[in-house]
């Protein structure tokens, strides 16, 4: 007779970047399902934004996530620009692409490093982290900081580039590309990696559509149109084409990120070429009018969505943020069907590159007497 057992992982665990509790339901060593317990890093950041000026709001948006902090400020700024008919200068639009893609590189490198450490390939994991330092240096040289950069403003960006910095970016990108091509080749040809990654954590097209999974998780299962950069005017001007695969397993999800790193390098070079042809300022005056609107961008884990309502004075009446990990965690439960061992289930969790702090933003308040839940509306 075989008994079903629960194997708890977390909330504190060496393979987890952030605290979350995963309860794996196992039969012997075979994984049958999972429950996810969250709430360990809840901050209620959307509620904190209410009533604050949009200048403070963009400051808080950058703190939704520590790894993809930049894309949150870009989405916040572009949402208000779209609402209030504010046109950012062309130079600023290209600089946003450069900084966004640099952040995508550093995010994918962390995801790849954590995955390789999860499957016990420490060599490639450390190589990825070492390569990431080049990208972090570039982000610091462009924006003045490595993580919370404070680079975006409504109406453009804060800083311009000079000739010396432009030359330095090209030089470091060339060095980084050589390094990353060699590292990815080692990943592709590693027998241990293939054994631990191929046909593990597989999820198909139907399950992706059912869970509305986003980002590399969706594109690894044959859905290239999930990339919101296809709908962004600046990326359309750069002739952007998404990277995707069909296998839907751990290996495919990591290879999509590897392919996207090479694509990001090409996008940065092209954006810098077009930036060099532009003239003028990188910031325009923002005239804020009371309105509401929404905007979507392709964050490094997938679609990030902002819906904002503001007053004539620029105070935030209500803000809603949706991040991709919400959907990708649902997809994770389907991936467990092809995880033969507990260690494979852990590696599969890291393959979706979850961001717990992105996900835990709001809290539902329930009246214990009436049983009604709080419902904030625009």
From TrEMBL:
Organism name: Methanococcus vannielii (strain ATCC 35089 / DSM 1224 / JCM 13029 / OCM 148 / SB)
List the taxonomic lineage: Archaea, Methanobacteriati, Methanobacteriota, Methanomada group, Methanococci
Q: Where does Mg(2+) bind?
A: 46, 321
So which cofactors does this thing need?
Ni(2+); Fe cation
What is this protein's name?
NADH dehydrogenase (Quinone)
Q: Which residues bind Ni(2+)?
A: 65, 68, 355
Cite the EC number: 1.6.99.5
The family database entries (PROSITE patterns) matched by this protein are listed as: NI_HGENASE_L_1
Residues reported in the UniProt entry to bind Fe cation? 68, 358
């Amino acid at each position: 007779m075989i008994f079903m057992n629960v194997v708890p992982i977390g909330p504190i665990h060496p393979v987890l970047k952030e605290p979350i509790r995963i309860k794996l339901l196992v039969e012997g060593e075979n994984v049958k399902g999972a429950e996810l317990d969250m709430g360990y890093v809840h901050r209620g950041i959307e509620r904190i934004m209410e009533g604050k000026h949009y200048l403070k709001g963009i400051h808080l948006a950058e703190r939704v996530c520590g790894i993809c902090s930049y894309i949150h400020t870009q989405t916040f700024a572009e949402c208000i620009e779209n609402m209030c008919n504010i046109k950012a200068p062309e130079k600023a639009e290209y600089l946003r692409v450069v900084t966004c893609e640099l952040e995508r590189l550093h995010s994918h490198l962390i995801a790849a490093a954590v995955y390789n450490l999860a499957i016990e390939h420490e060599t490639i994991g450390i190589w990825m982290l070492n390569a990431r330092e080049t990208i972090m240096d570039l982000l610091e040289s462009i924006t003045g900081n490595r993580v919370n950069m404070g680079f975006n403003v409504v109406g453009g960006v804060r800083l311009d580039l000079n000739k010396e910095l432009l030359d330095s970016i090209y030089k470091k990108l060339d060095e980084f590309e050589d390094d990353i091509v060699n590292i990815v080749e080692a990943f592709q040809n590693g027998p241990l990696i293939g054994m631990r990654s191929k046909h593990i954590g597989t999820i198909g097209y139907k399950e992706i559509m059912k869970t509305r999974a986003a980002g590399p998780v969706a594109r690894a299962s044959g859905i290239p149109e999930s990339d919101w950069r296809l709908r962004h005017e600046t990326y359309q001007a750069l002739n952007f084409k998404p990277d995707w695969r069909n296998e839907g397993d751990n290996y495919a999800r990591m290879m999509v990120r590897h392919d996207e790193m090479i694509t990001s390098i090409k996008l940065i070079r092209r954006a810098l070429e077009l930036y060099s042809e532009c003239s003028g300022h990188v910031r325009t005056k923002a005239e804020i009018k009371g309105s509401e609107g929404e905007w979507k961008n392709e964050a490094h884990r997938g679609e990030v969505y902002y819906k904002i309502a503001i007053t004539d004075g620029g105070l935030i009446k209500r803000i809603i943020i949706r991040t991709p990990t919400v959907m990708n965690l649902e997809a994770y439960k389907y991936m467990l069907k092809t995880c033969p061992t507990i260690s494979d289930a852990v590696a599969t969790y890291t393959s979706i590159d979850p961001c717990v702090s992105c996900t835990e933003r709001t809290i539902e308040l329930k009246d214990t007497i009436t049983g009604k839940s709080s419902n904030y509306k625009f």
